[in-house]
Inverse folding.
C-alpha cells in the first residue's frame, strides 16, 4: 500500500508540475506574442481567458493527466488503473479548493467542471495504458 501511494504521489507531481509549468509558459509566451503585435492589455487579458486558449490548456491538462496516471501505474507491478486513479485525486482536490477560495477566480465555471469530469478518467486511461504497455520481467527462483 505504501508503494502504491508513493507512486500515485509521483504521478500527481508529474501531472501538477507539468500542468502548471506548461500553462504558465504558454500563457506568458502568448501574452508576449500578442504584446509584440501591439495588442492592448485588455485584449491580451481577454484572449488568455478565451474559449480557444482555455480549450488548448484543457487538452494539455488532459494529456498530462494521462501521463501522470501512466507514470504512477508503470512504476507499480499491479493495480495499474487504481494507481492511475489515485494519482488524479489530489488534482481533483486542488480544483475544489480553487473554486471554494474567497479570492476572485477569473476561470470560467465550464472549464473547472470539465476539468473535474475528465481528470479521473484520463488518469485511469494512463493506468490502463501502463498495464497494456508495461511488461514486468520475472527472474526464475534460484537463477
Amino acid at each position: 500500500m505504501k508503494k502504491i501511494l508513493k507512486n500515485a504521489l509521483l504521478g500527481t507531481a508529474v501531472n501538477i508540475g507539468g500542468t502548471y509549468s506548461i500553462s504558465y509558459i504558454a500563457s506568458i509566451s502568448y501574452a508576449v506574442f500578442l504584446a509584440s503585435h501591439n495588442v492592448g492589455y485588455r485584449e491580451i487579458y481577454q484572449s488568455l481567458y478565451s474559449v480557444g486558449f482555455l480549450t488548448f490548456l484543457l487538452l494539455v491538462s488532459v494529456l498530462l493527466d494521462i501521463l501522470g496516471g501512466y507514470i504512477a501505474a508503470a512504476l507499480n507491478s499491479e493495480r495499474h488503473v487504481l494507481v492511475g486513479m489515485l494519482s488524479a485525486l489530489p488534482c481533483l482536490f486542488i480544483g475544489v479548493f480553487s473554486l471554494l477560495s474567497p479570492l476572485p477566480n477569473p476561470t470560467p465555471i465550464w472549464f473547472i467542471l470539465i476539468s473535474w469530469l475528465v481528470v479521473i478518467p484520463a488518469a485511469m486511461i494512463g493506468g490502463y495504458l501502463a498495464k497494456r504497455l508495461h511488461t514486468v520481467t520475472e527472474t526464475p527462483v534460484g537463477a
